[in-house]
Design a protein that fits this description.
heterodimer; A: 789 residues; alpha/beta; six-stranded parallel beta sheet; 9% strand; elongated; B: 341 residues; alpha+beta; 3 domains; 13 strands; 30% strand; flat
């Protein structure tokens, strides 16, 4: 009895040991399989093969490795081995009908026709009782074709040898084949007369597959031969140094990014670098960059662009954006990547648009301009090396011109940028992916059947499979990956009551601007906007702008000149007293914390400098026109000695200002993205304390109306940086926000109309925010954190 | 030479004072001329952070390019220390030289001063990714023969090179450079074979996917058209959709081909002429009644016969065919000759 118990125990232990060992082997196999998969997706077939084989050696029953290895063998045209692997799979899983089919498939390619026919018959037999889905129906059709082909070959061989074909007999014996043959013959019956003849042969033509990659050998000489064809020789050491230097300059693999050293004023984050490497190596320059708002898609695209340029891989680039973002892209490319881009403001575009598109190698254009009848044909006839589409969700509909344009452009690389690729349903995602890599998700009908839940276009069916496919074409980094935990920020807008004379000057200026606008219209948009913005900054800035206008525009009507001169003389009466100035001194005197004051106009900066000096308040100045050394000195003075920094907007990006946590917008840019950029100088990674933002704005001014929408209605200062951009993009206007605001301001006849117009705009923006929130939610559900680098 | 050594040497050659500091950096005192040329101050520091990392992106390294690019393009050295020895030349010929449709006769041998060109080419393969390397081709200027696998061993010998050059006439370099370029092209194709294979694989994958995708769309259209009772206008619409699908399909195939097309750019970097003594075997090649004398050097570095060049494809060969007009052709070119074509 005891012995029996002992033996039982031993047996149990043995089983546990065996289980454990099997589990370990399984894990090892799993590891190797994952390596193999990753190598395979990188295109390293040899290494992938080694790992897959290793996985099988670890654990014979690891069928996924068998499958993968068979796939690799097929890719490498080693069909004999592939067939053997499929047979192994069948040993463990006899019901795997696909492996049965592929055994036959590989055997035909290997030239073992008789065995192939047997395998195909096995396949047909196995599926006889099954309900056939689309894939199996296709496989069945293929199997019948293959049987027929192989039989033909065998018959031909047998005839040639003068012996009776063995296989033919076998086919006659097979009960399964005959009906299938008849079925396949049925399909070949010619169309009835009233049906048109349809030629589908181009899609079955195998010749594009056999042609292989086109190779061009190109000699580059420059003036080398001329330079060396001389009597005297260079010293041998110089020869050596030259050669070694050239070796040093050889373009390295993508593991080492060249662009990193060439970026300016940018905080680079690890996930951006990782994304860039991945796009270069894995995605091979065709990708949907779908990072959440504010994580720097533009930076990633810029880094990729710079990388390709530094490697000499691209020359002609086209960036397509919504109209309101053209200048922003142009400026960012210049300031951060040192890349000069032309826009359609270029004089060449106005003169000869066709030449503009052909001659300019780097263009940022609004997608609306690009798709216009005037440009569509020219743009689609040019070979671009790289096309970048910002806010790519505007390409979600296949029937739109936006989509047709991007689809028709000839391009080697393409980046689609969108934080919200799915706005309404999954078909939009399908369209974007099809733009990048047609066929990845099949046809629209197939996609709907396979990946979309019936009756609900927003819900994915088969999500795991979809994820697998999408991972090859899209990256979406999320905040939780990046782990950006910024402190809170608090914004207060102070509506300052102007002094009577300030009010009068502002009223006069606005009245002149309205009249000027109604007369000149959009032709003078820049002048008009500038005057109105200056008026919002300070009377002194306005005075300077008027002086410039009077000086440079000699063709102004005498009446206009007179009105402007009147405003100027009223400004002179102000005598360096201003309501906003007083508010500022009150604000900075509240505590001794460091504060940065942003100003747009130099004259306002001068005024504030004088003001602070007059009350003996220490401060430093930082402006775009200063030299690098002066800027450094200002920043260190602000950090170490003085409590206030008066700063213009330009030139400070990328500088470390996180030791300060209070920001005062003395004047307000009309473009909310600029406002965000100002805040972003303090509210960024590295900031430890809560950030306080104060906006100074004169009551009754255009900024007053603007802030009542942005701050009061949509709480712009609570949004994540970058979100306002997307929300305003949803307004559906070609104009950027500052122009919309200016149009309303200048186009309203009286105060009540002005109020009504701004109320209407407010409602539209609130609706746009709601749309955005919905979209964001949907994208979060669909993508989650599954597409991070 | 490591990167620090290289930069130090380049700067010193241009009159800079370079001093290594303890923290993996060098301090440089620039002469006035270089200060202007490189837009730098009188004193500069260059740090080598973490070994041989990404220094080649540095501005200073960029500007060094302007210093090295004008010098060291064409140099010459001699290797007088090499002493060519030859034992039993007939046996060497017998073992190595094969005239497929003729015979050869050993006439004699002598030691001669030969000059070789060591030509360095930058070969860049550009497709959807880019790879670069430097290929070195050696060419015997007197015989136009190509000593194979000599480059690496020659580098070793160059350590003992002398500036004392023999008084010897040399030929115009342009022709040799052209030949070198052609050989570099052929070698590049071999070097980038894996790259090409991977491109082909990816191209085929994309083409297959396009075929499936557009083929299925066309199939769907076909199915609709074949339905009973389809109206004429629906047929017309379907047919024009089918045409559009075909056009787009061809365009996309073209795009894919363009995307993966491989350009191999061959650019000369610099050239070194190397003089060295070598045993030269004089041989008579004979085809029918025609004879042609050739000189085949026994390379003093590899101690192997140098290859002759196929007139058709410029491939280096020691086993070849002779045409009746005594042109020498490799087995794959024979009987067509590139010159005749």
């Amino acid at each position: 009895m005891k012995e029996k118990k002992f033996l039982k125990k031993k047996k149990r232990e043995k089983k546990v040991r065996a289980d454990r060992s099997e589990r370990t082997k399984k894990w090892e196999a799993e590891d190797n399989y994952l390596w193999a998969r990753s190598e395979y997706s990188e295109g390293n077939l040899k290494t992938a093969r080694l790992y897959a084989q290793k996985a099988i050696n670890c654990y014979q029953k690891h069928l996924m490795s068998h499958h993968l290895l068979a796939q690799i063998c097929m890719d490498e045209d080693d069909f004999g081995r592939a067939a053997e692997l499929f047979r192994n799979i069948l040993k463990f899983r006899p019901g795997d009908v696909e492996s049965r089919f592929f055994t036959g498939y590989c055997l035909t390619r290997h030239g073992s026709y008789e065995e192939a026919i047997d395998a195909f018959h096995g396949f047909l037999e196995a599926i006889k009782e099954k309900r056939l889905d689309k894939r199996l129906r296709l496989l069945k059709k293929d199997a019948l074709n293959e049987i027929e082909k192989s039989t033909g070959i065998l018959k031909y061989r047998a005839d040639a040898e003068g012996s009776a074909p063995r296989v033919q007999r076998q086919i006659q014996k097979s009960p399964a084949t005959e009906p299938h043959r008849q079925e396949s013959l049925k399909k070949e019956v010619p169309l009835q007369e009233d049906h048109p003849s349809i030629d589908l042969s181009p899609f079955k033509d195998k010749s594009p597959l056999n042609r292989g990659v086109e190779v061009k050998l190109i000699s580059v000489d420059g003036d080398f031969t001329k330079r060396i064809n001389r009597e005297e020789y260079d010293p041998f050491e110089d020869y050596n140094l030259h050669l070694q230097y050239q070796r040093l300059r050889l373009v390295k693999e993508f593991d080492e990014l060249l662009c990193l050293e060439h970026l300016r004023n940018i905080d680079k984050y690890w996930y951006q670098i990782e994304t860039v490497s991945n796009v270069l190596k894995r995605f091979r320059g065709r990708v949907l960059l779908a990072d959440e708002v504010g994580l720097g898609k533009t930076i990633e695209a810029g880094m990729l662009l710079k990388e390709y340029i530094l490697r000499g891989m691209i020359k002609k680039t086209l960036i397509l954006t919504p109209p309101s973002l053209v200048s922003q892209w142009q400026e960012e490319m210049q300031s951060k990547f040192d890349l000069e881009f032309s826009t359609t403001d270029d004089i060449l575009y106005r003169e000869t648009p066709q030449d503009f598109w052909r001659r300019q190698d780097s263009v940022v254009a609004s997608i609306n301009t690009a798709k216009s009848r005037k440009n569509f044909e020219t743009i689609t006839s040019i070979d671009y090396d790289l096309v970048i589409v910002d806010e790519a969700h505007y390409l979600h509909n296949k029937r739109t011109l936006n989509y047709k344009l991007v689809n028709s452009i000839k391009k080697k690389f393409i980046f689609l940028l969108s934080a919200t690729p799915v706005q309404n349903n999954l078909i939009e995602l399908y369209n974007l992916i099809t733009l990048l890599r047609p066929g990845t998700l099949g046809t629209e009908m197939e996609f709907k059947k396979e990946y979309v839940k019936r009756g609900n276009l927003r819900a994915p069916n088969n999500p795991e499979k979809l994820r697998k496919l999408l991972r090859d074409v899209m990256v979406r980094n999320t905040r939780s990956l990046v782990d950006v935990r910024l402190p809170r920020r608090f914004a207060t807008t102070l509506y300052v009551e102007p002094l009577p004379i300030e009010k009068e000057v502002y009223r006069q200026a606005s009245s002149f601007i309205r009249d000027f606008y109604s007369e000149k219209g959009e032709r003078e948009q820049f002048t008009i906007t500038n005057l109105q913005m200056a008026a919002g900054s300070s009377p002194f800035a306005l005075g300077e702008s008027i002086r410039n206008l009077l000086e440079k525009r000699t063709n102004l009507r005498s009446d206009d000149r007179r009105r402007l001169s009147d405003i100027l003389s009223r400004i002179r009466e102000i005598d360096h007293d201003s309501s906003k100035g007083n508010q500022l001194t009150e604000l900075i005197g509240r505590n001794e914390d460091k504060k940065i004051v942003f100003i747009r106009y130099v004259k306002t900066l001068e005024y504030l400098s004088n003001l602070l000096r007059s009350i003996d308040y220490p401060f430093a100045v930082f402006s775009g026109s200063m030299t690098l050394r002066e800027k450094d000195r200002s920043i260190s003075a602000f950090r170490d000695d003085v409590p206030i920094l008066l700063s213009t907007e330009t030139g400070g990006e990328g500088r470390n200002l996180q030791f300060c946590n209070t920001l005062i917008n003395y004047d307000l840019p009309w473009n909310p993205m600029r406002l965000e950029q100002r805040i972003g100088r303090l509210h960024r990674i590295g900031q430890k304390r809560d950030v306080y933002v104060f906006n100074l704005c004169m009551s009754g001014s255009i900024e007053d109306y603007m802030m009542r929408i942005l701050d009061d209605k949509i709480n712009m200062f609570e949004l994540v940086i970058g979100e306002i951009d997307t929300i305003l993009g949803n307004l559906g206007s070609d104009k950027d926000f500052s122009n919309i605001v200016m149009d309303l301001w200048a186009g309203s006849k009286d105060d009540s109309e002005l109020k009504a117009n701004f109320d209407q705009l407010g409602e539209e923006i609130v609706a746009a925010r709601k749309t955005y929130e919905k979209t964001k939610e949907l994208d979060e559900i669909i993508f989650g954190e599954d597409y991070e680098v | 030479m490591d990167i620090q050594g290289l930069i130090t040497r380049i700067l010193e050659r241009r009159g800079c004072l370079v001093e290594a500091t303890v923290d993996n950096a060098v301090q440089i005192l620039f002469p006035k001329e270089l200060q202007e040329r490189l837009s730098v101050g009188e004193i500069g520091t260059f740090t080598f952070q973490g070994g041989d990392g990404n220094h080649y992106e540095n501005d200073l390294i960029d500007s060094l390019g302007s210093l090295v690019s004008s010098r060291g393009l064409f140099a010459a050295v001699s290797l007088p220390h090499l002493k060519p020895v030859i034992k039993n030349p007939e046996k060497i010929l017998e073992n190595n030289l094969i005239v497929q449709n003729g015979i050869f006769r050993f006439v004699g041998h002598e030691v001669k001063q030969l000059s070789y060109l060591l030509m360095n080419f930058r070969v860049s393969a550009v497709s959807d990714t880019k790879a670069e390397r430097i290929l070195t081709i050696a060419l015997n200027e007197q015989t136009d023969t190509v000593p194979l696998e000599i480059e690496e061993r020659l580098k070793g010998e160059l350590e003992n090179a002398s500036d004392n050059l023999p008084d010897q006439r040399t030929s115009d370099i342009a022709g040799s450079l052209e030949k070198g370029r052609e050989i570099a092209g052929r070698l590049a194709l071999l070097e980038y074979q894996d790259f090409l294979k991977s491109l082909n694989r990816r191209l085929n994958r994309d083409v297959k996917r396009l075929q499936e995708y557009y083929g299925t769309i066309a199939g769907e259209i076909e199915k609709t058209l074949k339905k009973k009772g389809v109206k004429k206008e629906d047929i017309d619409r379907g047919l024009s959709r089918l045409e559009a699908t075909k056009t787009e399909y061809h365009k996309k195939i073209g795009d894919a081909r363009d995307r993966y097309a491989l350009e191999i750019l061959i650019e000369p970097v610099n050239v070194l002429r190397v003089f060295m003594p070598a045993s030269v075997l004089r041989v008579d090649l004979q085809r029918r009644k025609n004879r042609m004398p050739v000189e085949i050097p026994l390379n003093p570095i590899t101690n192997r016969l140098e290859h002759l060049i196929c007139t058709g494809c410029h491939q280096p060969v020691l086993s070849f065919y002779l045409r009746d007009d005594m042109r020498l052709l490799c087995p794959s070119c024979y009987p067509d000759c590139g010159l005749c074509k």
